[in-house]
Amino acid sequence: MIEIEQFTFNPFMENTYVLYDETKEAVIIDPGCYDPREHKELLDFVVEKTLKVKYILNTHGHIDHVLGNYFAKTHFGVDLLIGKEDLQTLKSVEVYAANYGFQGYQATEPDQLLDTTDIIKFGNSSLNILFVPGHAPGHIAFYPTDKSFIIGGDVLFQGSIGRTDLPGGDFDTLINSIHTEFFKFPDSTVVHPGHGEATTIGEEKVSNPFCALK
């Protein structure tokens, strides 16, 4: 059974997730840890739980979700994976990072570009991939076979949605991604978003002011 640990990092209050199971193998999704204190917080958890990190995964390449890519990839000595359509989003971070005050940002190349046919395997667990553009052109999300949860990045939030005013964003595309991909999941499916608290598909279907089904 997959366990999920959430951390909130950096000034953007971004959610980083560590997923692991009974084998102690783990994946880290969207490492936003930037400063030494945040690095230590993530590392301390991994050490405390005696986890063996297998992959670093990105839902998309915006700065707040990738600030810790270099640290996590190099410290744990594992591959970095991101959706194949969002490579340019990731590469652009090193151009503008200093403008946001992150002069210490260190870029790192992904080792694998993911497609929806790929399956992420760790321990006795696996994650499937959704292609959900709109917030970022190559945004992906991760979910287990039993569809009990989605690690959703900046697609669907509790009572809100990801912003679409950044380069490559598009409101209509995002709403379509939510309706055709996220809302096909059971109402009980828990959405773990890139910012804020978790929600459920059922709750957002009826109450989200941006994308509820009328």
Automatic annotation (TrEMBL):
Outline the extent of the Metallo-beta-lactamase domain. 13-195
A Pfam family = Lactamase_B
Listed SUPFAM superfamilies:
Metallo-hydrolase/oxidoreductase (SSF56281)
SMART domains from the entry? Lactamase_B
Q: Which cofactor does it need?
A: Zn(2+)
Q: Which Gene Ontology molecular function entries are recorded, alphabetically?
A: hydrolase activity; metal ion binding
Alphabetically ordered keywords of this record:
Hydrolase, Metal-binding, Zinc
Keyword match Metal-binding: yes
| Name recorded for this polypeptide | Glyoxylase, beta-lactamase superfamily II
Q: What is the originating organism of this protein?
A: Roseivirga pacifica
